[in-house]
Records
---
Amino acid sequence: MRCHSVSARINWREQIAARGYDISLLDHPPHWIEAYDDPFCAVFSRHEIDNIITGATQQLTKLILELVEEVCCTGGSESYFDRLQIAPPFREPIRRSWKRHDQSLYGRFDFSLNGDSLKLLELNFDTPTSLYESAQLQRMWLEEMRQFQEIPFAAMQSNSIQEKLIGCLRLHFSSHEIFHLGTFQHAREEIDNLKYVQSCADMAGLKTQFIYLDEVRYDPEGVPLDREGRRITCLFKLFPWELLFIEDAKSHAENGKYLFSPLVTSNRTTFIEPAWKSILSSKSVLPLLWDFTQQREFLLNPAFDAGSDAATYRDFHLVIGSWVVGDEPAGVSVRADSNKATRRQALFVPHYVTD
């Protein structure tokens, strides 16, 4: 992978705002690269995409699902959950979610790339954001930059995220009467990501309803209700399971009742992402993965790392995101941060692929 300078499109702000995106999330402070004083893009070779990143994504997807099976279904299950620091009241709901094959929608591996050496930095498989930037904004950027001859006209992009999202939603969730999508009112970035997922669900032919989780109420049987009093039987929640478990524990301490875990256990509400993905969202999963397998080509031995300069450009550290929809590789995104640990406010860098 290499980077090179490009010009910012004159009206990029207006174009993105016209699509309903909250431009302030991209512009103040700069999050989208064209809001940066010296914009640049990432360039991959076809070899890097097809033979390195996609291959690693396929191998690691298989590996992490094998790990979830190990955690949920073997004699060492309790010990695994102890290491993941998942409290006992939530372990059986997680096991049931996995054993009945609750469907996943999407996730993202974060990699570093140095030559042909690709290493996993983090798993984002519960509430990954920057989905809209990855699926739509960088695709729009690619089309216009080719027209403006800023990049080769034959340049392509590793990006089938939207098509695969629509396909997965249509295949696995169209039987539900209403596909609810929710997060909390204060979560501006999550709201924009949620509205993008809603647009994909609409294109998949699902009947959708956006809700705020702050407004959810419960019927006498403990099933959540939306503002119109309709039962929420299928919920795409952009809120991490680890925080839902904390809320559940508070509810039990105050009222003697768990709210979310009984819904998972009984399957009265289908959650996307499913509860078993709380295993993959735990930071403790990386050392667990290292100990679980001898297939360590794409793994780092989890320990404190002072870092290196191998993946820097103009004092940025670059992280490659490889998206998975269902269990298939779906595309690549790049973020740049001056900090060695990539933060939420990192710059999103569009990319293109050359032969």
---
Amino acid sequence: MIKRAALILIAFGFLWVAHGASGHDGATGIIKVRMNEMEQLGSQMNTLAKMAKGEIPVNAKQITASATEMVRIADNIPDLFPPNSLEKPSEATATIWSNWPNFKIEAASLSVLASQLGADAGTLSTPKDLQNQLAAIGKTCKTCHKAYRIKK
């Protein structure tokens, strides 16, 4: 189950980064800022996923740096979604604002999980060590996207 979840997370990360590179056309203001931040979040996940797959060495310094950046972004997610900022090419749905308390809980959950990953970085030495935490982070991302992002 853990390997399957990790593979799903890895595939999700690659798609997220690839989509971010082409999905910003015409974005301005806060929508462009949030798209860039979400792309950066995806980039951090992509790096960590490569470690979890054994494509690159597990590196505590890089895990800490990625986790720190993910916490920074997660903590700012609510500010990236001012009320009704839905102009194209935004992929946000209005459900964010009709379910604002839960949206903030999801962002806080991402922050907590990323913070825990950073705290554990020194104890993670193999791809398998990293897989469980990445699977939990990926599940949080997926839950939020399923509820609050335009379906592709």
